[in-house]
Every structure is written in structure tokens, then in C-alpha cells.
Specification:
Strands 2-3-1-4 form a 4-stranded antiparallel beta sheet, with helices on both faces. A hairpin with a 5-residue loop joins strand 9 and strand 10. 61% of the residues lie in helices and 8% in strands. It is α+β, with helices and mostly antiparallel strands and 753 residues long. Helix 1 crosses helix 11 and helix 14 crosses helix 23.
């Protein structure tokens, strides 16, 4: 592979003008199409084949209005007053009448018609029904509904508008998120000691992001794309785009400092560091694309979209970057006598395997420290990672609702007021769809079903209470066709509570018995039930996905390092990093540690697909560092260094770049923690912690210590397996003996030596 990549790098170097223009032209086409066609988002969390989703689709077909978006208008009278007082009641009726004429509103049910008034008279709840799903609401429809409440506010009542019509409507990227880019630039300048090198690194990353993100947004016109997907693709694409270019550019400058010709250096850097980039990129692409096996459309598109952005970043690093190296020529070489030049020359001297040569860099000094007593280092590292992972088993999954919206937002205020005055269950009612009723006896059969679920009739017409555990009350409704009905079940617990999950299970267990008694077909649905089914599907897929990812890591690393123990060590390290990341997420987003400092609006279950996304991304990035760091150690060992000297010398070559890459990724991910969207915030936080732990604790500390403990056995491979495995030549061992890879000006010197 290294030979092919070296030829690709040389071709890009020699045809630098055409390659650069080609990429700029592609970027221009993508941007032009995006401006012309635009993109669209769909934030529905669906799960084809589940009971709740099939029932929801059937409900939409039977009564389109019933499946439309719903909103709530909450009215709260001042302390000591009642919403039934003439002044307040008149204001409420005025709001109801005005809201009925708001854009896209089909109907508004007055709280006095539905008896949606609390027993103490303090609060009332009006229901607003839209004729379209939330995704079909036009810009400004919800704002127009909020403006209809002015009469109630002027009367002195507290009013809030919420409901499932509100939700994730797009992630707003602000200036704060670009702090990560600024930090990345600073790290690049300090790493290279050159503004030109830092700027070139950032330029290639931005071109890759432009092409990848533009393509993804254009694809939203063809496939269903959530508003979170582009942000995830931007976050990952920007981080890997900078890192991949950093790996190749760093190798190139080291070789220039050693006296290599620019063209030869560009080819060799693409062949050696580029091989690690290809491997790391493919692992990320495979892991993200593997999200499609879960069978949830929005997650599939999210994974493939992010994978596409990573793939573009790899192609940019292998083609556009060598072309830019050709345009820069020797100007990228560190200035003679500068600190950068001395540092790069030290990195180029791969023959120094002893203490003097290996001890010149901070990376080598750190590696010598952690390998001096490797067993102590291993035990301390494992203990620290175990402590970080302690909260991980408490991980709870759910889809976001208005309880996770920003404090002070209309939907969050309405959610809190409904919970306070009407009970938390009204924020996430369940729907039992009843099909196949005999129209002549529909009311009787439906009453029997409602009584079994909700208990005895209440004083409010059409309501039942005192039935199944955790059911506050149930309301039966026959739909216009006469043979289909729904029973709205309001739990006593909130949408994200474990008790609501248990209630859904009890309703489904009761359904077969009710079907035998009434002859109808029953199914539990509603947005709350759909969210529970999505979370259950993702939770069940987590362990199989982890096994697939770990198995993939073992196979790929076995091919790369031709060792049995190194892949096992890498896979265990990956699992430790994931455990620490999960633990940190639980501590902040469920337990509330540092929640205020990080701007977490509310604690509770984390977004259902966060664990599987974290595993996919961290897997690729962990293998990225593993390959770049350990391949340099193996290179030294293959060239004759003693096992421990090979570890130290390999760290001298790779540690600075790995640390820089980790700091860049951490800063990019951490900058996205400032976003208000709870989905992006949680994913960004988990990735930031995971990268920090994996790079500095696992790869830079635990890995050298384990390799030092294992000694020569770390590189052991059975002879029969050695013969059976293909040689990928990640280290570029063949480059030095392939005539086609030598520049013409160097051939005479090589011949005469």
C-alpha cells in the first residue's frame, strides 16, 4: 500500500497545478449547487417495523389530523385567583379564538370544553392541533401561535406555549464553536514553528469540510437528514481533516530537515504517514457506516454522512496536500539553525536508538519515565480509568423532549408548568390505537378497553382513572370512520421516567387479552412510545456493535502490526477509553456534576444514539493514534533496536504529532460543548473526554508501559499466521528499495555509494 500511495503523492506533487485547480473547482461546484438547490432537514426519530411506528403510520392514514403536530397553551392565574374568574376566562377564550386562525392550525380545544382545568382552578390547558406533522410546519407558524397569547398576558396570567410541535429545529453554529479552530491553529503553529505549514494544514482541512459538508447538505434533498447530522459531520470532519494533514506534513518537514529532496519527501511522507492516514480513515468510515446495521434510518444517514466527510478528508490529505507541498517547495523546510530545524533533525535521526538520541524530546523523556517501572504505570493507569468508568453502568437512554430545552425557552416553560399543575405524564401521553371495531358496538367495546386501562369513569366526561399502575387517567375517542378509535393514556410519570417504560410494557402485555375480549386489534403508539422503542433498539444493538467494532480492531491491527498481543492490547485500551467517556457523560448529564458550568439545561437520560456514535468515532480515532504511535515503535524494532529502546525511540518520532493531533481534536470537540442543543452537546463532550483519555492515558502512557512489559513477545506472531497474512507495509519498508520511487537527481548518488 505504501508504494501505491507514494506514487499517488508523487503524481500529485508533479501535477500540483491541475490537482489544486481540480479540488477548487469541485468545491466551487458543490457550493454553487448548494446555494441554488439548498438543503432540508427532518428530525423525526422513526424505527420502521416497530409496533409504535406501524401504529402511528396507521393512525395517520385513518385520521391525518390525529397524526399532526400538537401544541399546548398553558394558562396560570395569579396566586389566589382562578382561571374561571370572568376576567381570566374571557381572556382565555379570546386567545383560543385567535389561535384558531393562526397559520396551519386545524383546531383549538378550549380548556373549558375539555375540562382541562386543575382542581384548584389555578391553571388551564388549551390543546392546539396542526394539520401537518412537525416537519411540515412552515417557518413562523409556531411564532405566530405564541403571538396569539397577548390577551392572556395583558390580563395578568402566566402563559406558555409548548407541546410536541416544538423540538429540534436545527443546530445554530456561532462564533464560540470556532474557538476550537483558533486553538487548532495555535497548536499547529507551535508544532511546526511555521505559519506557512500551519496555514497549509488548516487550508486542506477547510477544503475537505467544504466539499464533504456541501455534498451532505445536497444529499438532504434525496434522503432524510436530521439537523444534527451536519453538525456531527462538521465536528468529526474538521478534527480528522486537520489531524490527517498534520501526520503527513509533519513527516514531510522532518524529512526535509534531514536533507531529502522535496519531491522525494512528499512521495515518502504520503507513502508512510499516508498509509496510517488511510488505515485510520477507513476504520472511522467502516465504524460509522456500520451504524446502518442497527436499522434506524436517521442513524444510518447520520453515520454515512459523517463517514463521507471523513473519506473526503482522507482524499484531500493524499492528493491536495502533496500538490500544495509541491507549490511550497523548500519553503516548508525549517530555517537553518532555528529551533524548529533542530527539533525536526532530531526527529529525522532514526538511527539514534540509545539514551542520548532518544532522550532529546519530551516524548522520549515521558516514555522513559512510564517504562522505567512499567507494571506500576499499568496498574495506576488502569485504576484511574476504572474510577472514571464507575458511573458508566448507570447509563440511561432516551430521546430528547422539551424537558431538555434551554431554560427560559417557551417549550421548556410550558413543559415545567404542565408538570407542576397537571402532572408530568401529560407531557408525554401514550396512545392505544384500536382497529377493527364494529361500528354498532364501538362505544361499548372502547369503554371496556378504557376501563381496563384507566379504571372507573371520573367526574369528567369520557375520562377513566384508577386502572393500571402509573396510569393517571385514560380518554377514549372514536375516529370518524367508526371502526377505529384511540385511547389516550396519561401516565403519572414523565416521558423519560423508567415507570413510563414499564407502563408501555404492561399495556402491550394486556393487549392480547383485550383483543380476545373485543375482537379488535390494539397497538401502543404515540411519540413517547416511539422514543421508548428507539431507545430499546439502540440499547439492544450496543453490545453486538461493540463486539463487531472490537473484532474489526483485532483483525485490522493484526494485519498492520503482524502481532497477536498488540491488537489485543489496543482493543482493551479502546474499551477502557469508551468506559471512561461513558462514565463522564453519566456524571455530567445524568448526575449533574459540572452541569451548570457546562450549560446543561436539565439532567436525565442521555440521547439514545450517543453511546453507539461515541463507540464508532472513538474507535476510529483511537486506532488512528495507535497506528501512528506503535507503527514507529515497530519500525525501530524491525530495524534492530532492542524492544524497550524501540518503544522510546518510536515515541520520540511520534509523540509530538500525536499530542498535537489529540489537542486539536479535543479543542474542536470541546468548542461544540457550548452549543445549546443537548444532542450535540452530549456527543461533543463525550468525544472530547474520550480523545483526552485515549491519547494521553491509554496511548501515551499505558501502551508504552505494556509494550515494555511484554518485550519481544509483543511482536510475536505464529509462523503459519505470518505466512498467511498479507503484508500491508504500513511502515513503508519497501520504499527504500523501489527504484521507481527515487527522484532522478538522487539516483547517481545512490549508485555511486
Amino acid at each position: 500500500m505504501s508504494s501505491f500511495l507514494a506514487r499517488l503523492g508523487r503524481a500529485s506533487y508533479r501535477h500540483r497545478g491541475a490537482v489544486a485547480v481540480g479540488w477548487l473547482a469541485l468545491l466551487g461546484v458543490v457550493v454553487t449547487l448548494l446555494v441554488t438547490v439548498g438543503g432540508s432537514f427532518d428530525d423525526r426519530f422513526t424505527i420502521p417495523g416497530s409496533e409504535s411506528q406501524e401504529a402511528l403510520d396507521q393512525l395517520n392514514a385513518a385520521s391525518p389530523g390525529a397524526g399532526g403536530a400538537g401544541a399546548q397553551i398553558v394558562f396560570v392565574a395569579p396566586e389566589g385567583a382562578s382561571v374561571t374568574d370572568p376576567a381570566y376566562a374571557g381572556a382565555i377564550e379570546q386567545v383560543v379564538a385567535t389561535a384558531g386562525h393562526a397559520p396551519q392550525v386545524d383546531a383549538v380545544v378550549s380548556p373549558f370544553d375539555s375540562s382541562a382545568v386543575t382542581p384548584d382552578g389555578r391553571a388551564a390547558l388549551a390543546q392546539v392541533q396542526y394539520g401537518v406533522a412537525r416537519e411540515g410546519l412552515a417557518d413562523g407558524s409556531l411564532e405566530a401561535l405564541q403571538e396569539t397569547t397577548s390577551a392572556a398576558r395583558e390580563a395578568g396570567m402566566e402563559v406558555a406555549v409548548g407541546g410536541n410541535a416544538f423540538g429540534t429545529t436545527g443546530v445554530q453554529i456561532g462564533g464560540t464553536e470556532f474557538i476550537g479552530v483558533a486553538v487548532a491553529v495555535l497548536v499547529l503553529v507551535l508544532t511546526f514553528g511555521s505559519l506557512l505549514a500551519a496555514g497549509m494544514n488548516l487550508l486542506t482541512a477547510l477544503v475537505g469540510i467544504g466539499v464533504g459538508m456541501g455534498g451532505l447538505l445536497l444529499a438532504s434533498n434525496v434522503v432524510t437528514l436530521s439537523s444534527t447530522a451536519p453538525t456531527l459531520a462538521l465536528m468529526i470532519g474538521l478534527a480528522v481533516g486537520i489531524d490527517y494533514a498534520l501526520f503527513i506534513l509533519s513527516r514531510h518537514r522532518t524529512q526535509l530537515a534531514g536533507g531529502m529532496e522535496p519531491e522525494e519527501s512528499a512521495a515518502r511522507a504520503t507513502g508512510t504517514a499516508g498509509s496510517a492516514v488511510v488505515f485510520a480513515g477507513l476504520t472511522v468510515v467502516i465504524a460509522l457506516s456500520g451504524l446502518s446495521v442497527v436499522g434506524i434510518p436517521f442513524l444510518t444517514v447520520m453515520g454515512i454522512g459523517a463517514a463521507g466527510t471523513v473519506l473526503v478528508a482522507v482524499l484531500v490529505a493524499l492528493t491536495l496536500l502533496p500538490a500544495l507541498l509541491g507549490l511550497a517547495g523548500r519553503r516548508l523546510a525549517p530555517r537553518a539553525g532555528s529551533r524548529a530545524e533542530r527539533r525536526e533533525r532530531d526527529g529525522a535521526g532514526s538511527d539514534d536508538v540509545g539514551p542520548v538520541g532518544a532522550g532529546r524530546s519530551a516524548g522520549a523523556r515521558w516514555t522513559r519515565l512510564v517504562t522505567r517501572r512499567p507494571l506500576v504505570t499499568v496498574l495506576l493507569s488502569l485504576a484511574g480509568l476504572a474510577v472514571l468508568a464507575i458511573p458508566a453502568p448507570q447509563l440511561r437512554l432516551a430521546l430528547p423532549d422539551n424537558s431538555t430545552a434551554a431554560v427560559g425557552s417557551p417549550e421548556r416553560t410550558a413543559y415545567d408548568l404542565v408538570s407542576e399543575h397537571f402532572g408530568p405524564g401529560l407531557n408525554g401521553p401514550l396512545v392505544v390505537l384500536v382497529r377493527g371495531l364494529d361500528p354498532a358496538t364501538a362505544q361499548q367495546s372502547l369503554g371496556s378497553i378504557a376501563a381496563r386501562i384507566g379504571g372507573t369513569p371520573t367526574g369528567t366526561p369520557g375520562q377513566f382513572e384508577g386502572g393500571l399502575d402509573d396510569v393517571a387517567y385514560a380518554v377514549p375517542t372514536v375516529l370518524p370512520d367508526g371502526g377505529t378509535a384511540i385511547v389516550t393514556v396519561v401516565p403519572e410519570s414523565g416521558p423519560q421516567d423508567e415507570a413510563t417504560n414499564a407502563l408501555v410494557a404492561r399495556l402491550r402485555n394486556l393487549s392480547p387479552q383485550l383483543e380476545r375480549e373485543t375482537g379488535a386489534d390494539l397497538a401502543v403508539t404515540g411519540q413517547t412510545a416511539v422514543g421508548i422503542d428507539v431507545s430499546d433498539r439502540l440499547g439492544a444493538a450496543l453490545l453486538p456493535f461493540a463486539l463487531v467494532v472490537v473484532g474489526l480492531a483485532l483483525v485490522l491491527l493484526l494485519l498492520v502490526f503482524r502481532s497477536v498481543l498488540v491488537p489485543v492490547k489496543a482493543a482493551v485500551g479502546f474499551l477502557l477509553s469508551v468506559g471512561a467517556s461513558f462514565g463522564a457523560v453519566v456524571a455530567v448529564f445524568q448526575w449533574g456534576w459540572l452541569a451548570g458550568a457546562l450549560g446543561v439545561a436539565a439532567t436525565g437520560p442521555v440521547i439514545s444514539f450517543l453511546p453507539i456514535i461515541l463507540m464508532a468515532v472513538l474507535f476510529g480515532l483511537a486506532m488512528d493514534y495507535e497506528v501512528f504511535l506503535v507503527s514507529r515503535m515497530r519500525e525501530e524494532y524491525v530495524h534492530g533496536a532492542a524492544p524497550r529502546d524501540a518503544v522510546v525511540t518510536g515515541a520520540r518520532h511520534a509523540a509530538r504529532v500525536v499530542v498535537a493531533a489529540a489537542l486539536i481534536m479535543f479543542s474542536v470537540f470541546a468548542s461544540f460543548v457550548t452549543i445549546e442543543d443537548v444532542i450535540v452537546k452530549a456527543i461533543a463532550f463525550g468525544l472530547a473526554v474520550g480523545i483526552l483519555v485515549d491519547a494521553f492515558v491509554v496511548r501515551m502512557t499505558l501502551v508504552p508501559a505494556v509494550l515494555a512489559l511484554l518485550g519481544r513477545s509483543a511482536w510475536w506472531l505464529p509462523r503459519w499466521l505470518d505466512r498467511a497474512l498479507p503484508d500491508l507495509d504500513i511502515e513503508g519498508a519497501r520504499l527504500g528499495s523501489t527504484p521507481a520511487l527515487r527522484t532522478p537527481v538522487r539516483e547517481p548518488a545512490a549508485t555511486g555509494s
